[in-house]
Amino acid sequence: MADSSFDIVSKIDRQEADNALNQARKEVEQRYDFKGTDASIEWSGEAILIKANSEERAKAVLDVFQTKLIKRGISLKSLETGDPVAGGKEYRITSTLKEGISQENAKKIGKIIRDEGPKSVKSQIQGDELRVQSKSRDDLQEVQRLLKAADLDVDLQFTNYR
How far apart are the first and last CA of the chain? Predict the structure, then answer.
């Protein structure tokens, strides 16, 4: 019998992220507490730029955006946010959406699988994802449960299950 396998990846649905940003922008434009604060949120290349005339308003815009991301099914673990930076009369927060599993995190995940997972399971790093193989599908499901319970700073999805 051939080995069963699945891939561990960290990807973001760009369309959902774009929808979340557009919803947040509309809410910021319409909400009464944002009137006259010059608050805005927009794409700036691959980054997300939040502007407002005070640090509190900039953080409030970020909070609205995070709420929209959660409603759209995007984990906040994939959102990397900087601190508010004062520039002239406005405060700016630059955020990015991170995709892929870094080598450091891939090694952590591999170590968790080796140390705590079933002995028949093998994992290997392939670029920014991990492939996990075993003869037993039950062992693979056990690895998935183990990784979901682990407190990692990466949003993981399990794909390509064969």
Answer: 12
pLDDT for the residue 67: 96
| 9-46 pLDDT tens trace | 989 999 999 999 999 999 999 999 888 888 999 999 88
Average pLDDT over residues 47-70: 94
Cα distance between residue 29 and residue 15, in whole Å = 21
Q: How many whole angstroms separate alpha carbon 22 and alpha carbon 90?
A: 21
Reported pTM: 0.85
Taking Cα atoms as reference points, which of 53, 111, 105, 107 lies closest to residue 84? 53
Distance of CA 126 to the CA centre of its chain: 20
Cα distances (angstroms) measured from residue 160 to each of 7, 78, 132, 149, 156? 6, 21, 10, 21, 13
Spatial CB neighbours of 88, under 8 Å, sequence gap ≥ 6:
none
CA distances from 112 to 90, 124, 128 (A): 45, 13, 17
Q: What's the rounded mean pLDDT across residues 44-72?
A: 93
* DSSP alpha helix (H) spans, the chain: 14-30, 55-71, 103-116, 137-149
